[in-house]
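Quick start: read one record
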Amino acid sequence: MNPNTPLPPCSILLLAGGRGQRMGGQDKGLLQWRGEPLIAHLHRMSRPLTDDLIISCNRNLEKYAPYADQLVHDDESGFPGPLAGIRAGLKAARHAHMLVLPCDVPGIDAQLIDDMRNAANLQPDKPLMVWHDDHWEPLLCVIPVAHRAVFESAWHEGERSPGRVMRKLGATALRCRDQDPRLANLNTPELLNGHPPQPG
């Protein structure tokens, strides 16, 4: 693809609907990091890149609303997991592709999103997931909205892993370097406060 060719429009889904179990049940997207809620960091980085910014959240809707064009929520109670949020996003997405970002990876930058979109555009009928440190990152992905029915069918068959659904669809990989600091997952109080747990 010519790098000067503009990419087609893409919806962006920010996942903030989890239970926050490792954070003592707090609403993770609203926790402070460097003086702002985590969701504010993701919003500032992704807002210029889409006219369809969706947030999946299951509580505090009034606090999330200023950061999104659309809010979606799980259609089942009890925080059933990220696949539920992705399903809700796919139903609401206004463009042919939806890029997914978790709210607890605030180091993501516009270059990574650009790389994800460019890589996804090479095989636009397949999902794309980030790959690093010998594993997939299924919550950093680009999903063709045309596969919405596949996600619905998998859910109703009992599947709860978005990665498995995408691998069955022949997902492609955007390979990032190992220990890429942009992919640091701040999903515990220690990591959020800059005090990673000590080994051993």
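Residues 195-200 have pLDDT under 50 and may be disordered.
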